[in-house]
Amino acid sequence: VSATGRTPADVLVDGETIAAVLAPGSTLLGFDLAAHVDRVIDATGKYVIPGGVDAHTHMELPFGGTAASDTFETGTRAAAWGGTTTIVDFAVQRAGERVMDGLAAWHDKAAGQCAVDYAFHQIVGGVDDDSLKAMEGLVAEGVTSYKLFMAYPGVFYADDAQIVRAMQKAADLGLLTMMHAENGPAIDVLAAQLVEQGKADPYFHGIARAWQLEEEATHRAIMLADLTNAPLYVVHVSAKQAVQQLAWARDNGKNVFGETCPQYLYLSLEEQLGAPGFEGAKWVCSTPLRSRAEGHQDHMWQALRTNDLQMVSTDHCPFCMKGQKELGLADFRAIPNGIGSVEHRMDLMYQGVVTGQITLERWVELTSTTPARMFGLYGRKGVIAPGADADVVVYDPAGHTSIGVGEGRTHHMHMDHSAWEGFEVDGHVDVVLSRGTVVVDDAGYHGRAGHGRYLRRDLSQYLV
Ligand code: URP
Ligand code: ZN
Ligand code: ZN
Does Iron count among this protein's keywords (predicted)? Predict the structure, then answer.
């Protein structure tokens, strides 16, 4: 199955790459292939797809006095289990730090640790003369996209002046600007008022981060990008009004893109309100979960069909309850933001095929092919074709996946809970190859830390 169609075929892997895609039972120069290869993986009745590309993860992200609980080792192992064979993680520069030091620190964390291939975006968390200059070196490092934050004043935040300067630089260099589009200063006012009123439970995180502030920031980002001729990619879109801004911009010829995440398709603010005690903390992420009554989730699915949103990443940013989420027991503002899903994206999105929300081809496009094209990896990743890396998943539509950590369930992410506890999904990741090596099959996990290589990325194939 590719982004454009499906056909019965045999896939011939030679070493780390795909050698041929052949009609079933083909002979090659008179040789019976099955008799001459080292290993045959029987995928009869199953889907063979390019490995998932998760273009938004945060292994070991420092946040709120703690750090995301998956290391590159545990996080990429979990990714492999779930059929994701490439991650693009965010290297971090904060105000006062040097961009290239941030990138070097991320290489140190990841090198020799990853089970699957990995690449980096650069967070530019302090836009100043030094960091603008440093951005000139990113493309040569294979880092062709960077992220700005309109949220989190005092942490990663960029004001409009900084955004304009960074976008001008990015437009010159061909870097894709990724935007966390929420009006942080306004959110902080609302959050402080809520806490003062005694509304300090996890649910109020979502109330403070009102959809109006996502819509407003999305619009502002679009217009600043238009002004500076910078292509724009809005991350973790959750409000239908933000999607409407993106749709309007695209209809008017602006080069803007958006991703959503599984949590914004399946989970809601109402469920968070209904969660007992502090349980709702497991769903504290930014942008927040939105109201189902307001129809945001349905609108995200619709936007994935109409291409108003182009792809699905996880924003994998796991924190344990114990010692991490619990930092915000008395005040939701101190709950580290993030949900862990790197292991579940392929299954959760396949569920959209099962329920008729998206086609089989669109599933592959949203989870593998478009992420590869968007972030300059296509050809190596995102496709099963001669010359491509042999990142291949055999997916069993007749299989079943029970997600969670309780009662015999075991995920592989380093988390003491699951945001997806109890999810039952039709479909199952059967076999996973990373550059020709079987890393997961019926017998279990065969991967190893250090198999995964750093990927220098080309410019986005969506630049014009
Ligand atoms: O809640 C989230 N999304 N945490 C990770 C940081 C970010 O803004 O992507
Ligand atoms: Zn963000
Ligand atoms: Zn993120």
Answer: no
